[in-house]
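[Solved] Which block belongs to which protein?

Original post:
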Amino acid sequence: MTIDVLHPLIHSLTKSEKRYCRLTTGGSGVDKGFLRLFDCLLAHDTLNEELTAELDRQFPGSTLEPARKHLYRVVMQRLRQFEQNQRVEVRIGQLLHDSQILYERGLVQASQDQLEKARLLAQQHERGLYAVLAARQQAEQWVRLQFDGVDEPALASLHDQIRQQLDQSQAALQHAALYETLLFRYQARGVVGSPADTLRLNDLLLEEYQLLNRQTRTGPSRRSFALLQQHLHFQSAYFRMIGDGAGSLRVYRELETLFARNPTLWTHQPLYYVQLLEGILADLRLLEQYEAMPYFIDRLRRIDTPVQGLNRLVPYLALYFSLLRLVDAQHYTDAVALLAPYQADPAGFERELSQLPMTTRTEFDLLLVRLNLGLGQLSAGLHRLNRVLALPARSLPGTLYTQSRLLNLLLHARLGNADYLTHALRSVERKRKNKASAGEQLVTDLLRQWLSGRLTKGSLDRIDTFSGSPADRQLLRNLDVRDWIIRR
């Protein structure tokens, strides 16, 4: 892995993970070049020219390449070992591997016992494909043992369990495909606006209904957690697409209740629940249902997890969405008050932010830039934004990369830097030629109007009547374009 991947990976480690990496890489005769690289990357909070110069000094010639490759292997191996007992899939995999080892050494009954543990654990946590793997490994052992001690009803029961698990897994995958197709249409097109779009939407709705009925008839009477989850996700996207915000909110509450009632199915991987709440909050913000957000923010705050890294991320996600509500509403004084306890130690606050996952940290930084601009602190906003702009492009999702570049243009417009803006605007348009979305094109058009002195408050009509995709409408909100026009 390259340095622009290694650097954020190293900085994402918790104190416990860093200590674990050091303790398990000792011993005489071990090449410590990768540890020097580890320390060097930790010593620099950002990828910049200072880090590049330090790497050139410490690793002359071609010595950086082997240290970089070895450090990546070591860190990933230690992280796998560190988390191996926290992931149910890893525990099942270990049981399957243990069973194979025991079988190869002639300990047949012990091997079968491990397979049974793996199968029951997979069923308990609704990991259907893992349950199938365990059952198939058990059947293959029975064949090699010439079915010693096995009768036909036992074999038939095992085959029936395999069929049930495959049916459930296939249904969940089909449901996921329907949801993803519907969600893609919503992100690309927004609310349905024609009879043809509505008809295509009804086709998906009918297919989802038939899938649910088929699973009820052929499978167990109780629908699986995965199937119910996908059904509710589908329903929430459907209500959003037909413009029924109240219906979507009702389904969000059902989804949260479903997770709250089935903690054993996600406790070992709470990131699923965190991502659910994060997605709900993002959708509510897109629907402008700000009054519904505190309920789900509170659910986020209540998550208590021992998983390293996640217990640090969750409080900042709750803070992010709380702050987002205030900044969107231009309640900048309240936003400053919310941040006050965190910024009592500015260096500590920035250090905590630097240890968040890259995407979350960037979203937080861009939100703080928006707050700076709302408060009229243009220089502070530019300083923070420059840190985002220094990140390698391939480390960020395309939406965040685009948002940061356009926010930079708008900030320089607020500063009155016409010469810089002229050059930067050409660069952005050249890179995004034939790729710019309707929202991006609108922003660059407005900036060109500003440069030519033709931007008026009448330009607000273009913002207010904009009917682009939800992603584009989200972009315009994240850039505070309307506020820029009013304040210019």
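(Second protein starts here: sequence line, then its structure tokens.)
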Amino acid sequence: MMKKKSRILLVDGYNLIGADRELSSESKVSLEGAREQLLSHLAEYGATSTYDITCVFDAYMVNSTETILDYYGITVVYTKEKETADEYIERFVQQNYNKHLTEITVVTSDYSEQKTIFGLGALRKSSREMWESLRFSKNKIRKKISGDLSQKPRQRLNVDQQVLAKLEKLRRGT
């Protein structure tokens, strides 16, 4: 039996934030708030996709080590000091890509980064395309929820009166 290819979506977080007017404005007020909103969008998308999603944020100017967190099923990576998200993504693709076992898609609008990762075997998706996918996913979830809510509730089960009487006694503790 053939093993199914794992599908990985690597997202350049700040690049995706910068590609959305609302989040870009939010990032000027609160970078943490913009990251939180982006991760929320990605978590919703992850619920309807077959990708293992990793979102990478630069910590280039921050004096720290690499940090990896989980946000509702999304792997969040803050790069180590003096490492850009692009460098992390390139290293990740080099270490994890195998044409027979993995499909890696990188989300970035950085043209030189797209060319580099494509040369390493990964697929590329622009930030604009990713925002379209996120909106489509959100609408898909909204329709599913409204469809579930509009369905009539199931009818009561036909339960024998003796069974109901026994259950009522149990409920009352008598």
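Accepted answer:
You had them paired correctly. Confirming on the second one: The chain has a mean pLDDT of 89.
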